[in-house]
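Here we describe the complex-level prediction in full. Unlike the single-chain runs in Section 2.1, the two entities below were treated as one system.
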Amino acid sequence: MAAFLINSLGLPAWLAWTITATVAAALILNVMAVGALVFIWAERKIAARIQDRLGPTRTGGKFGWLQSVADGIKLLAKEDLMPEGADGMLFRIAPYVSFCASFAAFIALPFAFDFVGQRLNVGVFYVVAVLGLEVFGVILAGYASASKWSLFGAMREAAQVVSYEVPLGMCVVVPVMLAGSMDLVTIGEKQAGWFTNWYLFHDPFTFVIFWVYFTCAVASVNRAPFDLAEAESELVAGFHTEYSGLRWSFFFMAEYGSMFLVSALASVLFLGGWNGPVPIASLLGFSDGTGDTAGYLVRLVGCLNLILKATLGVVVMMWVRWTLPRLRIDQVMTTCLKYCTPIAAAMFAGAMLWSFFLPGGLVGLAGRRFLSRPAGEIREGWLEGPGGGVAREVVSSRPISEAAMAPDPSRFGERRVSR
Amino acid sequence: MMPSSLFGMAAMPLGTAAMPLAAVNWHGLFFLVFAAVACGMAVAVVLADNIVRMAFYLVLSLGATAGLFFLAGSEFVGAMQLMIYVGGTLVLLVFGVMLTAQAPFVSIKTATGDRVLAGIVAASLLAVLLQAAFSVHAWREPGRLPAARAAGGPLEPMSSPLGMALVGVRVDDPSPGPSEGGGVAQGGAAAGGRSGYLLPFEIVSVHLLVVLVGAAYLARAKRRRSPRELAEALR
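The structure predicted for the assembly as a whole is:
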């Protein structure tokens, strides 16, 4: 976009970059804010349906679709209270820490090919690292409130973090290994084509590990059955007991933003990202990589694809929330450390062996080209980059078909769009 | 993102207040912002007396350092900084509060002697670091490019060569290096490239494993005493 502004409109570079950055930041902010409004409404409706009632029906005519806006206005008008014994600075700043962490993680999340705030070479790692910061806000809030309920919530949250981060990291590593890159855009690209190319269906191990990831992701965003930090029935409202008004709503924006984020991350890592189950665009002869209007439209559809998948993930989280009872803290730790971690480790080893012995998958074993290119062909294309002669020798010691050695046009680093 | 422009902002004459926005060196500006946050918050850590506030300042300082890494284009190190240090501070905070809290808000009062001692240590470290920084020739001339950039090579920050180097293959530097002896170097030479960092990587892994086992051993619940031992202990 910056290139477009500079070349076509003749703007100076500094203005073009400033505009580009502002637009990207504003878009991401809107994804979070509008997303939170929609998801809170959806949560109320889904909860109502699961509990056999109607939920909001009146505000805004049908379906109560303006309910969240009305709630927002109410929150704006609420008095901002702070307990007398609280640590004022930390109490005030904690909601922003949570919100900023969630917001910062969105920067590296690609919504479609090239629809990404900042394409990072270590995108996955960055997102996971920044998401961990959100917890910091929760713990600060719990501590600074000078309330026993809040402190209990914060301590539970801390214990929970230590337990879920290990399996979460292990689950994330598997798609990184399969794609040979930590770049989220590359990982999404590698899954282009039919839905059989999605890493979810890459092998049985990745299929299992997707569910482990989802479990840990639910734990990481403090949703029931892992909402121990909140625990309305035990701790009043946990870490945000003392919060009211807009500060309180910042926590919720952060929570719903993170829910969307981990679901979108799941989509990119396992569910093909912005690639639909059927590659309609490429069947029609369009590519998302071209710089013309068609390419832009294809990317826009891809963006819708990703948002749809991520929303599906969020809806599943809501469904889980209103279905399962809350776990005890020891049960949370048991789930994460005693079950999820060994499962993730075993599945990691399994996926590694699978991609080593069956680089083309079962389809490659059968020895014919079926549906689309086997994953082994497009994997590790970056090895053929500059100075790749060495790496190629290393790779060729493995049994790989002739076709796999042919230069791959879609390989990383050589592709395609001018921004 | 030119590292050469790090000092460009500082080198600009301050008198030209009416300079157009285009002349603002954004990289240098952001460098100054991040550096100021990092340094200011580091000082705040020392001056604060509430342990949770200290942890918060520390997180800000370390986060700003990560920002500096991102600004320099080394995303991997930046993300590492966030993951390890900021996440580590979180655990530090929790255990610091849990293990030391006697009152609702923990305060730490430092004795004057400790302050003097810490000041001396910090000042000597600063002196060593400053001396080291100013002895790097390339950093003293603002306009000069690092050798890699000047050669015209694309300096794309990639984590994949890093990973390959860790398992012993140097895809980024295929020229055969001097044989350093040892099995790993032999393996690397056989692949036609310089040896990677497989041996250090393995050594670090084993170290971490030992630490984990040790921690698990120390934290393990003590073996239950037999009734006879218990009676003796009570006696």
